Structure formats: C-alpha cells, structure tokens
Amino acid sequence: MTEAVTVALRVTGLRSQNPRGFGGAIFTGVPIDVDGSVPDARSYIVVKANRTVLGATRVERGQWWQVSGPVTERRVVVDGFELVEQQVDAEVAHLAMPAGEHIIKYIAENPAFEGLGSVKARRLWERFGERLYTILDEADPSALTDVLTEDAARMLVSAWAAHGQSQTLQWLQANGFDLRIGRKVLKYFGREAQARIEEDPYRLLSFFGKWADVDRLAMSRFGVHADDPRRLRGAVEEACYRTFANGHTVMLKADLEKQLTPLLGEPRHDASWRQLAATAVSEGLSNGTFVESASGLQPLGALVMERQVAKAICERLTGSPQPLLSAAAVDGIIEAVQAEDGISLNREQQSAIHLAAGHAFACITGGAGVGKTTVLKALYRVYDAAGIKVLQVALAGRAAKRMQEATDRASATIASFLKAMRDSDFDGPTVLVIDEASMVDIISMSRICQVLPSHVRLLLAGDPHQLMPIGPGLVLHSIVRIPAIPAVELTTVKRYGGEIFTVASAIRAGIWPAAGTDHSAPVAFIPCDDRLVAERVVELYALDPANTQVLSPLRNGPAGTKALNQMCQQRFTSGLAEVVRWNDEFERPEYCGFNLGDVLLCTRNMWDKALQNGSLGKVVRVEAPPAGAPAETPAILAWVEWDDGVLRALTDDMLEDVELGRAVTVHKAQGSQWPRIIVPVTDSRLLDRTLLYTAITRAQVQVLLVGDIDAARLAVLAPPKAHTRKVALDHALAKYLEEAEVSALEQV
Question: For the segment 209-237, what is each residue's pLDDT rounded down to a tens digit?
C-alpha cells in the first residue's frame, strides 16, 4: 500500500537525467529540515519525477527540493546485497534552493579565480548559499574566512570585483536555467544576458533547442502574449531549425505554414491563421531568419553554406588550366601500376584516373566492390609524379582508418582534420580527397570549403546510392546531378559477384529481387512476425557468431540494436565473469553491463587509444572487482581485443563511449565488411532501398533479411529517401557555372 508524503531533501546523486529520452529525472537525496540540516545521515530517498513535474529545470547535485507524491518501498540488489529504498513518484516538485552550480562553475573554471577549484567553491555555496552573492558584492573577505584562508578570501573578493557577474548569475538561477543552458547564455551575452533575454525570450531557442520549454518560459515568466511579434519571429526561427534538423535546406511557403501551425497553437478569435502565418513569414524575411530564393525559402545559414560550397567548386572548375600531366604521361603511370601491382584497370577506372588528373574538382562514384580504392591508389601515383601532396579525409573514424590501411597513406576524420589543420598543410600543390562522400552533410562540406585555399584540388569519392547524410543537405547527390561536373561512375564489380551482387544491383535500381527463404543460401529473405524478429535474428546469429554481424536500421524498438544486443548477451555470455566498477553513491562495486566474451562497439573517436567510432572488440579478460574507491588514475576493469588485433585495457573513463556491439546500425557499418550479415527488417521511416543496399553490400559470403518482407519490398520499389530531401545546392552550383561561362564568353 502506498501513501502520499511531502518531503524536503538535498540532492546527493543523479541516477538518470532525461530517462528514455522523455525528460524528467531520477535522483537521490537526503531529507533536510528548514535550515538544510540532515536529521538522519543514514536515510535517503529516491525521487522519480517526469518532465511535466520538473518543467525546464534540470536537477543538479546540491539543490534543495520539496517533493510530494506517493511513496513506495523498493528492494534492489547491488553487487549481491539487498537494499531497501523509499521511492517517491513526484506529483509536485518545487526547487527550494538552487545548487549554486552557476557560481560554483563560474569561480572554479574562470582563470581570474586561480587557486579556487570546484571543491572550495562548493564549500562556499554550502556555507553561505544565496548570501554568497551579497558577501562578494560587498567585498567583505573577513566573512569568507570560515571556509578560506585570509589570502584566498582577499584574492576572491578582488577578482570578483573585476570579473564577478552577481546579478546575471542570480537571475539565471532564479529563472530556472540549468547549468548547461545558463553557461551558454552567460558566455554569449555576458553581463547583458538578463536584458537581452528579457527583451526577447525567444533568443533562448539558440541555447535551449526546445520550443515547448522556451515558449512556456516566455509566456509564463516574461508575459509574452500568443500573438506577440517576438513569438511569431521565434516560431519562424524554430520552423527553420526543424527544417534543417530534418535534413532540408529549402522549403516552400506552404511548408512553413504547416510547421507554424503546431508551434503557435490556436489563434485569437479575431485573427485567422493565414494572417498570423503571413505576419510570421514577413517577420522572418525582414529579420533575415530566412531568405527567399528561386528554390523557395531558405534558412539563412543553409543558404550561406550551400553557396559557399557551390562557389568553391565553381572556382576550381573555372580557374587556370588544370591538367597535371599529359595524357600520355598518365597512361604511362597506369601501365606501370598494372605491371608492378599485378592488376588490370578497366576502361572506367582508367577514365576516372584521367578525369581526376585533368580537373581541380572531380567526383568518382560507384557501388560496392567496383574498385574505387584501386583507382585512388593508382591516381596517387599520378599525383606523386606531378608533385601534388595528397591529404585524405572521411567523415567517420572507421572509414578514415580503412582509407589509411588501403592506401598506406595518412588519413583523418573531417573533424580532426579541421581541428588540427595548419596553413602550412596547404603549402605547394595539394589535393584533398574525401572518401565516403555520400555521407558528408552540407555543414561539414562548407567548413572544408571555408578553410581550403583556392589552389587546393578537391576529389570526392563515394556512392550516392548508399545512405545519405545523417546531417542536413545533400552534397555528393546534388553535385553529380549537374552535367557540367567532371564525374565518372564505376559500374564493373571486381570484388565479388554471384547472388549477393545480383540482389544488391536489383535493389540499387529499385527492383525487388527474387530470393528464397533457405537460411543456408547466399541470400535469403526470411518472413517473420514483428514480435518474433529479434528472437529469430538471435537464433540465426547463433549458427555462426564468429563470422556474423547484425545490422539493424534502428537503435530502439523490439528489433533495434539495443534490444538485440541485450538478447545476445543473455544468450551467449550470461553467467560469465562481469565487468564491474566502483559506485560512489553506494560505496561498493557495481555491474557495468558487460560480461566476459561480450562484443563491444566504440561510439567515439579515441585517438589517444587508437580507437575510432565504430571499432569493434571482444572482452577477453575481466579484472577482479575493485576493493575500494578508485585511485586518481582510471581503473582497469577488463581487457578487450579490438578488430585491429590489439589488446587494450578497458578503463573506467571509457565506459560512456562503449556499448554492446553484436548488433550495430547500418550507418555505423557503412564502408565495413563481414563474411555473414543479418538484417532485421521492420516497417519504419528509416527503411528505404539505400539502407537495404548498404546493408547487403557489407556481406562477403551470406546475407539474411529477417522480418517484414512486404515492408522491405515496398521500400525497394519506392524512391530513395534522399529524393524527398529538399536542397538547393545543385541549383546554386548550376547558376554559378552558368554565370562563369557567360562571363568567359564576354571576355573573349
């Protein structure tokens, strides 16, 4: 039986912030009295509060909360010990006193307060609370000597006089800004933060990212009315954000009105939707939120990025003479490569080499196994002969690593290339080669074009029939639509053939292929009810786990990678040695979610450990559970043999960047290959022919599609998702090339 309670507590730990992506938090706290004292140090409470209860306020350690709701007794087992918890399912939650995280971080991380770290800053807040602002503003160091030495107190007061932002920090906390948002606002606006946000609360859209939270805050705390011009401008800005987040860089006016309807809600009785929408469009055009072009309405940022890319390409195609060597010299290098490497380059491959050697910008496209890497290796011999320095990049760390291994030349991710780039990298004749270019979005491409000097040649290699970018825009897809672009498509498959090639080629062309249901055949489509897909996939995986990789379109859902990995763990490694770490909250070891024999996936580039986003490894040894609190250096929890054959320690600080990996998303797999592939198929918005084609071409020996075969067939017959993405890069590029041609004719 449950009973309702009201309790005041101080937050001591966070178990989950934004659980399952629905907002809210699960946190622990100790009961306190009116002055913050803890009557019983042994008592603690678990609070479960959803987004509706917490609103936009983020729970932080040290905050005081008053919560009301039914309390239940929960029994949990931690490392074999049974503990009894009191859990309050909060129906009402009130932030009684902020944790002071804004001022704590401000002091701890500001160089002006050197020597005062987060520990001392937190002690100051715990001792004085809100009164700390007054003490610092009044420059009274003697009041601080309960916590600090006299010298440290004088230094803090002196630095605060020069750098302190008491009013702004207090305002941020009083208005419920969590630390992450508050720091962004403070960094951008400084002392003007309060005035700028009060002037137009919808400026917070740039920091919050959630219209509902900003709109609620603007109307409840800043008195904004439903038809306020600031709200209309904000709604237009949010519509632009959503358009861009959905991959589009351009929209029609009708698209904008559809986006505004759910944002602005019901209009006043004396204002029609058409009037409000027209006003919002006018506001957006007048303040530059978006621009009206021949393609439609474009968010200003999207327009700038697409035009930057288009101009960079146009400059390279219309500049000074571009051939590196004579055609005969290139043919000589091709003959030498064939003789020395014992290979045969077909007519398409030779044409691609000549094309890239003859133009400062070019594209080499083609499906899996057509020999794009072979072309690049031969082309690099041409660049070497012409004295051209070669730089290689790819979007993902795993793709960059494969590129380096295949060409025996240095390669980097686009992000690391831009971060480590120096002007000297472009001294002399240079070419930048971008592999897996179909996955490069307009944001990444515009950054590249922004930093590249005009003399640097550009070569894009990829397959527009594979997955489109996760981010906004279409780069390779748009560029190859323009007839004037130097481009060669390789079509002759050299790496593999047989039934996998036949099925992949049909799907690439939008034709539903014939295939049986025999799970021992090279290709099979195995029908299965959605509720049983995951179970069937695991059964088939168990037939040859050493050579099999599961590729799912989704992370979540019954057949997503999360559920499949959990089922595989239960099937293959349950009961084996567990990987454990030290838990500060319970002061005892806790299970990390991994067992001996589990396959792990690296989810972030960790260059210091020679691991890339997408690297796979297997837990081959587990260390003994820690006997006490960890040392200053990260504790070694287990040993993992990664796919490069290297044994590396799995340390405490790596846990957030690894997860179970017997099943990974198709996006993670692009560019990789395994002997045997299993693809769970369910009807989803991500399912299209490019996803299935990409997944199938990862297989070397066998590929099995399991699940809703009708959904797969409809996805193959329908146009690719990329065709529904609205962009304007191709129009901008065609326009610049046409203008350049007209200008050249006028000068003749």
Answer: 578 878 887 887 778 888 788 888 888 88
